[in-house]
Each structure stands twice: as C-alpha cells, then as structure tokens.
Amino acid sequence: MDRRASVQFNGPNALVLRVISVSARATYDGWAWITGYALDPETGKATVRREIFVLRSGLQIMRFKPQSPRKAAR
C-alpha cells in the first residue's frame, strides 16, 4: 500500500499487506475496509494484523518475494 490507496501510507508508511478479508459494511463509493497482515519486507512474515480504510482503485496486487537470506561469510 502506498499513497494511491490512502494518504496514511505515504512514503515510509507504505506497507505490504496480505489481505484476509474485505468488509461488506457500507462506505463511500470506491472505498473499502480491508483486514490483513502487514508483512516484514525482508522475511515476508506477518508482523501485525491491521484493519485499514483504502481507495480500491489505489490497491496493487503483488507477488511478494522476500529478500533472500544473506550467506554467512566464511
């Protein structure tokens, strides 16, 4: 998520979210409440569950590939 989904995710506040549900509750046209897990950018592991209000057209589907672990120096 970045600024295209909502101003709250601008710059360093951008996040990758694994979506688990989209709420059916009524909102403004084009907006939605979604629930998911914020992912750690290095490991891809879920760090915290979040419920966020976003502009649907600003969402991007990604195939998340965590950074490969660094090999230990010998």
Q: How would you spell out the order of helices and strands?
A: EEE
Principal-axes geometry comes out as: globular
Beta-strand share of residues: 25-35%
User: What is the straight-line distance between the termini?
Assistant: 38 Å
Unreliably modeled segments: none
Mean residue pLDDT: 87
> What is the helix fraction of residues, given as a range?
under 10%
Kindly provide the radius of gyration, computed on alpha-carbon positions and rounded to a whole number of angstroms: 15 Å
Secondary structure elements and pairings:
Blueprint: E1 17-22, E2 31-39, E3 46-55
Briefly characterize the structure.
Strand 2 and strand 3 (46-55) form a beta hairpin.
Notes on the structure:
The protein is mainly beta. The chain has one domain (7-58). The chain contains no helices and three strands. The chain has a three-stranded antiparallel sheet, with no helix packed on it. Strand 1 and strand 2 form a beta hairpin.
Labels describing this entry:
74 residues; three-stranded antiparallel β-sheet; 0% helix; mainly beta
